[in-house]
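Re: that chain you flagged

S.,

Sorry for the slow reply, it's been a week of failed gels. I finally had a moment to sit down with the sequence you sent. For the record, here it is as I used it:
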Amino acid sequence: MPQNVVITGANRGLGLELARSYANEGDRVFACCREPESATELTELAQQSDGQLTIHPLNVVNEAHRQALAAVLTGTPVDVLINNAGVYPQKGADIGDLEARGWLEGFYVNTIAPVLLAQTLLPNIRSGKRRLIASVSSKMGSLADNSSGGAYAYRSSKAALNMAMLSLSHDLRDENITVILLHPGWVKTDMGGVNAQITTDKSIAQMRAILDRAGIDDSGSFFDRDGSIISW
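Prediction finished late last night. Pasting the C-alpha cells below so you have them in one place:
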C-alpha cells in the first residue's frame, strides 16, 4: 500500500534521491527543504509526479517552520519520517581552528532538530501504519570506529544524534514506533565530495532495503548501508 513519507533536506543529494525513489513507487512524499524556490531538481520532480510529491519549506532549526509543517499535515498519518537534513560543520578544522558558533550550529541541525521534528510530528506518526522514524547518521559518529580523529564538530553531533535516537527508541517502543539510524556510506554528493566511495544510486538502494524491512525488533539499531550493525 502507498505510504506517506516525510523527508527533510530533500532538495539535493541523498534527500532528493530518496524522495525520487519513494515517489516513483507511488508513495506520497512530503519533500522538505529550506529554500524551495531554489530547489530546481526537486521542483522538476514534483511537476512530474502527478501530485505524488509536494514541496514544503522547512528550516529544521526553525520552530515556526516545524509547526507550519505540522499544520499542513494535520490529520495526515505519517508512515515514515526520514531525518536527512544535515551539515558538516567546520570541515577540515584542526584543534587550533575550532570555535563554538559553528560547533553549536552543527549540534542544532544534526542532533537537536531531528528530535524536535519527531516530537512535532509524533501525532501523525502514531496514526501511521509503518510508524518508522529513520535518521541519517554517520559511522563518523561511532566512538568504536574513530581511529583517525579530527572532525570534532561533525563526529560529536552525530554521536549525540545516535544517543538521542536510542533514547527515543526506548521511549516509543511501547507504542510500536520504530526508531533507527542509518549510515549511508561515503557518498558522492555535495557533502561527500568527488573522492567519495559510492554513488548516490547505490546508497539509496541499500538504504531502501533497510527502510522497507525495518520493524519494531530493529528499533534502536544503528545500521551500516549493507544492513550490518555499527557499534556505538
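What I noticed first: Residues 188 and 194 are 6 Å apart (CA to CA).

Talk soon,
D.
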